[in-house]
Amino acid sequence: MSWTSYDDLPAALVAELGDAGLDPRAVHALVVAALEEDLPGGAADATSTATIGDDARAVGDFNAREPGVVAGLGVAVLVFHTVLGDDLVVEHRVPDGTVVAPGDSVLRVAGPTRGLLTAERTALNLACHLSGVATATSHWVAALEGSRARVLDTRKTLPGLRALQKYAVRCGGGVNHRFGLTDKAMVKDNHVIAAGGVVPAFEAVRAAYPDLPVEVEVTDLDQLRALLDAGCTEILLDNMDDETMAEAVRITAASSTGASLEASGGLTLDRARAVAATGVDFISVGALTHSVVVFDLGLDLQDQE
After folding, report:
1. Active site residue 217
2. 220 an active-site residue?
3. Contact assessment for residue 128 and residue 117, using Cβ atoms and an 8 Å cutoff
4. Residue 150 sits in the same domain as residue 255
5. Can 188 be counted among the known catalytic residues?
6. What is the pLDDT, as a whole number, of residue 290?
7. Is position 1 within any domain?
């Protein structure tokens, strides 16, 4: 079996992925690598080849097994096109970011049965994981409703899946933090130790990269005051209790910097409202991507009449 090349993918699908803020070529390369895990060198699917005739065709519905928010449906379609090429009919039932209920059909695909089953697991692996990220994010968004706080993702992503996971966070209503180590500087505790303090670290980054946004992590209010005096406008409050964060908000509001504050460090959903009530601007949650529970989607095939 040979995989459909990037250049032979439907233009509309490539545009859909691009409009979602993804690099279609990179996503295609990821899909091919995932398919190669099942079929090295494009070998045949032994089970499907033995049990299903060459000319058998089927339709299949991606059905939600639980309530949540779906994401990655376009990526799932890319998997099927990479396996089947143009011999595929797709019916989008809902867009990414849709809240669904158990039993809802979110996507329909039709084509050669062997190819559908060959693509099934890879398509589900990606769509279930990304829908899990979107669903988890939506729970935080709901918990923060009515406050000024927005939920942020982190760089605690699975290798190779960062762009897709951050896309899924957006589908769930969250906000992306920096993508990598070049689009924003984040001064953490080890940088502070190496530089000799929060202010020296902040000033070193600002001197080396004057046009780059800089955020600095603090663990106490003295560090916060020092950074505000130095003109820092993005500050991360690390592992602070609610009372200390509320005081940090008051101190910052009284300064002339207009700095934003981000809460981080071991935060859980049951603390979300209390943390938001302190007045922080952002709450960053690594668990959105590093330990999310997959969303239960299933592909149910039917014989085509």
Report:
1. yes
2. no
3. no
4. yes
5. yes
6. 94
7. no
